[in-house]
Amino acid sequence: MDYAFILGTHPAWSVAEIDAVLGEYDLFWENERVLIKKDANIKAESLIKQLGGTLKIAEIEAFAPVSAPVADLAKQCARILIEKGSRGEGKLVFGISDQGIGGGFNAEKLGLTIKKELKGMDVSSRLVTSRDKELSSVVVGQNKLITKGAELIFFRHDNDLYIARTLAVQPYKDLSRRDFGRPVRDDHSGMLPPKLAQMLINCAGQKDHDGLLLDPFCGSGTIITEAMLLGYKNLVGTDLSEKAIKDSRVNAEWTRELYGLDTRAKFHIKNATRLAQFFKANSVDTIVTEPYLGPQRGLNDIEAVKAELETLYDAALDNFYQILKPGGRIAMVWPVFFGKEFLRPSLDKWKQVSALPPKFRHSPWAKLTERHTLLYHREGQRVWREMIILEK
Ligand SMILES: C[S@@+](CC[C@H](N)C(=O)[O-])C[C@H]1O[C@@H](n2cnc3c(N)ncnc32)[C@H](O)[C@@H]1O
């Protein structure tokens, strides 16, 4: 079967993550927010829980010429809804997402024509619409489109109009609970959103779930708890701050109980610049971390902040090199101030790995930096995040 992945706000991060999890084989990225995986057999419901950067996974059902008349498209869609849509009790509920079709495509007109078509087939239906062209995961979830009908997603690929049926949407309630409902949040030193933590862990690419994965600046434990949920068993978080270690333990225990996991992560108070005294040489499989990113306020003297961070990162990286196994990787966030002031610690010993495979690096949506890294930021943010992947 062929699948469409609807990508999040930072599509290149999402593509890097899917590539790391599924492999680049038979992946096609020809539409900014849609990645296609051909000839696969995917368990969408479990996969979407593992991908922080994917909003929806849909099965491609049909394609048509972009210029196809609405009446023809409506017939095709009605058939898909009847054959493949879920039928609960009552009306068949359906919605349409326009994923960047543009031109004269009118989702509402098409929706109403499908409704008429269904009526002609004796099927009563309810059309779900929203102000946006694309229905959000929340709208799809709240209207039970997947269990009581279907969401049809339209996008362009190979100069055709593709029609896909949504199989699973991002577990937005769960993600929000893990972000805002956890017992301890550390808004002072900053928290990595769980989605970003998932992407970072996935991009590190550790396939062996029993190998040792370390977060040496673990803060309140986001990366370690997300790694627990992704199935990693051998997890250690360290941090200089006693409070951070206490918070991490509380959050990890909460996650363990909430999801009925049997993994127990270990946490220790340690300075990241002296880790080689604690871990044996060549003993750690992977490091995934968002270190100290500089002061949250008062970014007046950027040069001084950069110099301080480069000294910290140089010393930490030196220790990481000693404790990592040969071939072991680091996936790390570095700050970029105001979107242009990059950190430049010494990377002499390391092999730097591009987040995207060669076939996607020149895509118009890749937006890789000069050093082949990807950036993440929200409107108005002064400190952007850069994803760095290094290999020993
Ligand atoms: C940005 S926070 C990490 C946030 C974490 N990713 C989370 O989501 O909770 C940075 C952490 O680095 C820790 N830190 C700062 N300097 C350190 C050092 N030299 N060694 C270890 N941890 C350090 C701070 O105590 C803080 O908890």
UniProtKB/TrEMBL annotation:
<dbReference type="Pfam" id="PF01170">
    <property type="entry name" value="UPF0020"/>
</dbReference>
<keyword id="KW-0489">Methyltransferase</keyword>
<keyword id="KW-0808">Transferase</keyword>
<dbReference type="InterPro" id="IPR000241">
    <property type="entry name" value="RlmKL-like_Mtase"/>
</dbReference>
<feature type="domain" description="Ribosomal RNA large subunit methyltransferase K/L-like methyltransferase">
    <location>
        <begin position="186"/>
        <end position="334"/>
    </location>
</feature>
<dbReference type="InterPro" id="IPR001091">
    <property type="entry name" value="RM_Methyltransferase"/>
</dbReference>
<dbReference type="GO" id="GO:0003677">
    <property type="term" value="F:DNA binding"/>
</dbReference>
<dbReference type="GO" id="GO:0016423">
    <property type="term" value="F:tRNA (guanine) methyltransferase activity"/>
</dbReference>
<dbReference type="InterPro" id="IPR029063">
    <property type="entry name" value="SAM-dependent_MTases_sf"/>
</dbReference>
<dbReference type="GO" id="GO:0030488">
    <property type="term" value="P:tRNA methylation"/>
</dbReference>
<protein>
    <recommendedName>
        <fullName>Ribosomal RNA large subunit methyltransferase K/L-like methyltransferase domain-containing protein</fullName>
    </recommendedName>
</protein>
<dbReference type="GO" id="GO:0008170">
    <property type="term" value="F:N-methyltransferase activity"/>
</dbReference>
